[in-house]
Give the backbone structure.
Amino acid sequence: MTARYGHPLHSLEERVALSRLRPARGAALTALAVCAALAPAANASAEPVQSGAPRIHDVQGTTRTSPYAGETVADLPGVVTAVNAFGSARGFWFQDPEPDRDPRTSEALFVFTGSRTPDVRPGDDVRVTGTVSEYRPGGSDSGNQTITQLADAEWTVRSSGNEVPAAVELDERSVPRTLAPGRGGDLSDRTLAPKRYALDFWAAHEHMVLAVHDARVVGATDDYNALWVTTEPRRNAAERGGTVYGSYRDANTGRLKVESLIPFSERPFPEADVGDELAGRTEGPLYYSQYGGYLLKATELGRHVDNGLRRETTAEQRDWELSVATYNVENLSPRNGQAKFDRLAAGIVDDLRSPDIVSLEEIQDSSGPADDGTTAADETLDRLVAAIKDAGGPAYQWREIAPQDKADGGQPGGNIRNAFLFDPERTTFVDAPGGDATTPVAVTEDADGRAALSVSPGRIEPRDEAWTDSRKPLVGQFEFEGRDVFVVTNHFNSKGGDEPLHGVNQPPRRSSEEQRHAQAELVRAFTDELTAVDRDANVLVVGDLNDFWFSETLETLTGRRGLHNPMTELPRDERYGYVYDGNAQSLDHMLVGRALADRVDYDIVHVNAEFHDQVSDHDPQVVRFRPLSGDNRTDRQEDRRYHRGR
């Protein structure tokens, strides 16, 4: 039986198609063997393997690149362990039941058959002939590792019903804690050291059957029927069940993505949240994807245990406190269904307790992703404000500045921008006309010598090249009980273009940082101007800074007596509001002027990132504080009265 096909296309479209295979909720959960519905494979005789002929471990070799790449190998023996029976990257895995004793060499391969389901079953004893290829998911410039596989293959089934090679059992001691050599560069041809480096451990087990037991979920089920577990449940454990990413030196190497090869009609993929569990055994071959790196393609899936993760609600602000929130609402536009507006509104009212000011990121124009020249976002913001009022919240007003068409990055045609909502019953927006897409805001002094803005709302240096194809910061001046408050809402350059943690180049190059560093310098210069005029200015820098609390970006904003980051006062297991590839991390921040450091009550409100049914991929955050009056005696009295001198 012969199959000749090209290389797989792991496209976004394919993943969407796979997600549609999920059955309706309530379908029976069974654990039938994968591919039981496939046509029976014919038994056939074959010549035994010739002495000296290559085996799978010879083809895999001791590096990531096969010594046989580009060559045809004949009659490789093995037992089929799993079949990928749907999608455009179908094929089967087979593993040599007679391994060598070299821990660097994998004993399994994947046979790629394109869009055709191969006529084999787990347990088939096969002899396979095919061309060895090194396929790099995402393309040559992706920075991903390659998969050694066979294409244009022919195979013969010698017998069926054989025992599948035993799985490699994973526990908390299996995977090395060091990700890769510190100055490894391109790892492709570097000899594997699976006992020293995690990426080498995974590469040395490429395509082999692995198993995890009672695995804790650290990345919720996504829209493409995948989730993340950890083999190291006690390492950097978050307070709510996840795994916290707190240093470039510690990638949490026990994270492992899980997808399923079991037809969803037989075993629906679990809708799991962070902290849930796949109880019992989860087993399957180890594969690699551009979307997260190494993953286990489950032929056996543990029982989903819902550990009852609940969404959080922040404390209600007191009369004397100003409450400010930041919320990335993930490409919100009128093209979204009403359900998204209603869920966001309910979260703002119930979970955030109707903050006095809400800084919003990823507000799209009124036509959404349609590239029709629209830049105004009045329909988007009016619809959100109406939904909040319908949910029992305040009659918010809003302020924003429309960007130039296609100048601020984000989803093509969407013209995302930052915006403010504010409750006019609690705070006043100080309007200063003249702000537009290209006019820079400047710090001025009012008649009393206090800091003020030349335009409000305004944008920080919008013509500077640091903001090329990126969202410009929006600055607004507010008044609360006669005290001025300046809020800078941000959405810094994304991490798109950075090399992945799991990639072939180590350490990965973070090319997107350069632009964020320049953006941080401009925002820092602006806040320094404010505090130069008024040392005790009530200034906040908030939003999606797209970088971590320990990054150079944040150091630029907070170092050298700069802004204060209240996140750093939280325990390390609480410093996150976003989950990516199973790592709970910090992209959103609420920085405050150093004079406010002892006054703020800060809260990351976990309502999205850890849940499979999220309305945004970011958790919102809130600070509550009494703004400084500017009079030292009054402020000292208020510290004793409201903040107990902390």
Q: What stands out?
A: Residues 513-533 form the longest helix (21 residues). Residues 1-49 have pLDDT under 50 and may be disordered. The first strand starts at residue 72 and ends at 84.
